[in-house]
Amino acid sequence: MNFGKGTLPVFIPIIMNTVMTIISEKTNVKKISATSPMKNSMVLFSKLRFINLAGVFKFMFSDRDIIKAIAEKKIKIIPFSKKFLQPDTYKLHLDSLIAIPLGGRVDPYHTEFSEKYKKKRINEFVLGPGEFILARTIEKISISTEIAASVSGRSTLARMGVSVTQTAPVIHSGHGVPKPRKIILEISNAGPFEVVLRKGMLIGEIAFYKLNTPASKPYDSFGRYGLRKNLDELLPLKERRIKL
Known about the structure:
By secondary structure, the protein is of the alpha+beta class. The protein has two domains: 8-45, no CATH class; 59-226, Distorted Sandwich (Deoxyuridine 5'-Triphosphate Nucleotidohydrolase, Chain A), CATH 2.70.40. It is 17% helix and 28% strand.
């Protein structure tokens, strides 16, 4: 769709009013004005920590919320130190075990992945441009069915082109229940540098979110990666064929 000059601003009040109507329904704020969307937004956004404009609400934990949830045993971080708390996340550290892909062809449904990776304990590892490894955190994490989480990289590494997740940042509700387990990282280098990774270095951070209602069951009671004999195993599992 092509908009002529000056056309887009015409839609802004309509878009803002639609968004404000959705928010008002979720927050029970009344008297939404179609003529003052910006004023409405200031009032309504102040009532929420985080808003998904599709109408899905996630309430992100602050450092105080994280400490409270740990005290209530709704979050477990082992080991835990307050010095690694950010205002709204907790910093994660790189474990010494990595898995280096050997290349070749893989089939998610048939490949024996133990034959496609080489595991290695490291003190240092140089990740070259275009390279990829599997790794894991030192920290073992557990979150209750009232909470979900997400993992992201650090700004410093990101500015070098290094990411710690590919397309799987979500830590499902009930991860590490009843036994806390490490988080697997998919580390890749999209930058031009050879980047030195070290055992124990700060590698990423985890954010926690309050669910609107508790999940019906913890992920580790049925999820394949939560039911493994070795909970901290790095390698992928074969995909299962599930009928649609």
